[in-house]
Design a protein that fits this description.
Layout (H helix, E strand, L loop, with lengths): L4 H12 L23 E6 L4 E5 L5 E2 L5 H12 L1 H7 L27 H8 L9 H16 L7 H9 L2 H12 L7 H12 L2 E2 L1 H12 L14 H14 L5 H7 L4 E3 L4 E6 L3 E6 L10 H14 L14 E6 L6 E9 L1 H11 L8 E12 L1 H16 L3 E5 L17 E2 L5
Parallel strand pairs: 9-10, 10-11, 11-12
Antiparallel strand pairs: 1-2, 1-7, 3-4, 5-6, 6-7, 8-9
Helix pairs in contact: 1-12, 2-3, 2-10, 4-7, 4-8, 5-8, 7-8, 13-14
Bound molecules: glutamine.
Glutamine binds next to loops.
């Protein structure tokens, strides 16, 4: 059998690449020179399988889709607080090229609009980095996200620099306001270069899934940024990534995303998938018309909206076995343990009578334990032990990291139930 996913993506191409509506971006002259009928779509799974359909070999410039990744690098290099001091995280409700500054602080409203992205570019790399050093950090960073070195499209870069009057004005504004301390011309050059890397639709999906995994590129295995930084990037993508269409996008598509005026859109659904779409004709907001159609279709067909409740039908307590001779209770747990699963387990444990019996938690069928479930489970184990139960742990896969009960005791290690 062949997996049906590629056929499904080809169907998406047939359904979504029919329109003639929309206009090519022409404020960057070179962008008006592309074939408007190109179309490609891609999806990359959490374990690094890449599916594509359409003109998947076509390269186009990354443009504003570089912004979340430059933001990620700034967060990595300067820390969340230092970046927040310079760039806010409020949706501007304005177009991408508007002068959207906070009234009191003078901070750009968010890192996804140009004025915020220009400022963010100045925060990549160590403080005091030269233009070349920043360029290098961006090149290395984008390569780590994509899993391959990307190349700058010099024609697009020169063409944009020739006409970047508005971006230069904005860089000068944030310089005058003391938000950036580097030379504004240098920053615009670096930012424009950052926007000029050539990517394919497959690169978009891999870069996106690297955010969806919490910062690890599943193809190379490289940890690019921390889970905290990825969360921050995805949060800002979901509120600001689609500029003045962000609310509409979140309610219909519901996937944290970023578009670029070259016609690409990338989307990252945390814990599930990274998606790329490419088709150069744009709507009035500067988003690919067919790209939007593609995301709408994928979201509804595949139920990818982030606000869909993730329904786990698995009872986190698979079974409870009581050994008649010793009185030992073994709770066999299963599935992913997050807040909801952990709460159900600790509620079940709370029903154990005060009979000083032995209680063993068997984690051999648990797939993953997050921090919240870990805290609740360890606290329940600590309380059981304080009340006089002997607490045992069977965890051959070490799903429960560092099972320290916090009262100087540790659970008794046991073999998993058969
Ligand atoms: N390089 C472009 C600019 O700054 C990026 C804009 C975009 O893709 N929305 O104008």
């Amino acid at each position: 059998m062949k997996t049906p996913v590629p056929d499904y993506l080809s169907e998406i191409r047939d359904l979504c690449s029919v329109g003639e509506d929309g206009e090519l971006a022409d404020y960057i002259p070179e962008l008006a020179a592309v074939d408007p009928d190109r179309f490609a779509v891609s999806a990359c799974t959490m374990d690094g399988v890449l599916y594509t359909a359409g003109d998947a070999g076509t390269e186009f410039t990354i443009q504003s889709m570089s912004k979340p990744f430059a933001y990620a690098l700034a967060l990595r290099d300067r820390g969340v607080d230092a970046v927040l001091e310079k760039v806010a995280v409020e949706p501007s409700g304005d177009a991408f090229n508007q002068i959207s500054l906070e009234r009191d602080s003078g901070r750009p409203r968010n890192p996804m609009i140009n004025i915020g992205a220009i400022t963010t570019h100045s925060l990549v790399g160590p403080p005091g980095a030269s233009e070349d050093e920043r360029d290098q950090v961006v090149a290395d960073g984008l390569a780590a996200f994509a899993g391959r070195r990307l190349e700058v499209d010099d024609a697009v870069l020169d063409s944009e620099l020739d006409t970047a009057f508005r971006n230069r004005a904005m860089a000068n504004l944030v310089r005058a306001g003391g938000i950036i301390d580097s030379d504004p011309d240098e920053i615009v050059r670096g930012y424009t270069r950052q926007c000029s890397y050539r990517v394919t639709v497959g690169d978009l999906a891999v870069m996106a899934v690297t955010l969806a995994t919490g910062g690890t590129n599943p193809i190379t295995g490289e940890r690019v940024i921390s889970p905290r930084a990825s969360r921050q990037v995805l949060a800002v993508m979901s509120t600001c990534g689609m500029y003045d269409a962000a609310g509409d996008w979140m309610s219909t598509v519901g996937i944290p995303a970023k578009s670029g005026v070259s016609g690409g859109i990338l989307g990252a659904l945390p814990g599930q998938v990274g998606i790329g779409a490419f088709s150069p004709r744009l709507d009035a907001h500067g988003h690919s018309v067919e790209g939007i159609r593609t995301f709408e279709r994928l979201s509804s067909d595949m139920e990818l909206h982030i606000m869909n409740p993730t329904i786990s039908e698995i009872d986190p307590v698979r079974s409870v076995r009581v050994d008649r001779s010793t009185g030992r209770r073994t709770f066999r747990l299963q599935g992913p343990m997050t807040f909801a699963g952990g709460e159900k387990v600790v509620r079940t444990l709370a029903e154990i009578p005060d009979d000083f019996s032995e209680v063993t938690l068997d984690f051999s069928r648990v797939s993953v334990v997050n921090g919240s479930a870990r805290r609740m489970l360890l606290e329940a184990m600590r309380r059981l032990s304080a009340e006089g139960h002997v607490v045992g742990l069977a965890d051959p896969g070490r799903r429960l990291p560092d099972p320290d009960l916090g009262d100087g005791t540790r659970p008794v290690f046991r073999r998993a139930a058969r």
